[in-house]
Amino acid sequence: MAVPQHAPTTIPKAVVDLAGDGRWMSQHNRFIAETHDKEPEVVFLGDSLIQQLQDTNVWRELFQPLHCLNFGIGGETTQNLLWRIAEGTLDVIKPKVIVLLIGTNNFLNTAGEVAEGILEIVRLIREKQPLSQLLVLELLPRGEKPNRQREKNSHTNQIIREQLRDTPRTAVINLDPGFVAEDGLISPQDMPDYVHLTDKSYRKAFTPLRDIIIRYLDSAELPSTSTQGGLISRDHPADEL
């Protein structure tokens, strides 16, 4: 499946501060400061779906004890995260595991362009953290009813799975517990605005991720497992490690 070359999604770009309050840059600077003060085992990178995870009971119960840092910022596109990584987010720390979820805010781009942006982020992470295990989370479905953005996210996931299938120390993970019902609808009990998750739906989607992370943390010193790439199912994590 062809992926367009040199898509705009691959060009690092800081967020334009239209509001004039500097919030995005302030968050980036805070994250940089945290990398100088802490030694995380796990780092989460992404947009609001990652950022809001840290406000849940799931984060406090399951991920905080694993010495995780959450570097998610709401509204980010692949370009914005590329800029942050290029500007030092991963330069000081040496996490054993990096979790990535980005791309749903690139709604003006094609699936191929979004995929290329994600692949460029993977390339940059691999360059800066060659020994870390990278877990690339598939984009979740969005919208109450079937829609083109949901279809595009699914297409993007397909491209990412194919492109990263044999990439060392990189695994693609599908955490969707079945948010789309048989009638094609997403419940507001899972996504009140049909894109962001409730505490309950975070627990359904992200609890299996903890087990996957722990397995990689436990096997971080074993080349036979820590160098493996491929696709991991949320329902069968043990079979893939």
Automatic annotation (TrEMBL):
<dbReference type="InterPro" id="IPR013830">
    <property type="entry name" value="SGNH_hydro"/>
</dbReference>
<comment type="similarity">
    <text>Belongs to the 'GDSL' lipolytic enzyme family. Platelet-activating factor acetylhydrolase IB beta/gamma subunits subfamily.</text>
</comment>
<feature type="domain" description="SGNH hydrolase-type esterase">
    <location>
        <begin position="44"/>
        <end position="203"/>
    </location>
</feature>
<dbReference type="Pfam" id="PF13472">
    <property type="entry name" value="Lipase_GDSL_2"/>
</dbReference>
<dbReference type="InterPro" id="IPR036514">
    <property type="entry name" value="SGNH_hydro_sf"/>
</dbReference>
<protein>
    <submittedName>
        <fullName>Platelet-activating factor acetylhydrolase IB subunit beta</fullName>
    </submittedName>
</protein>
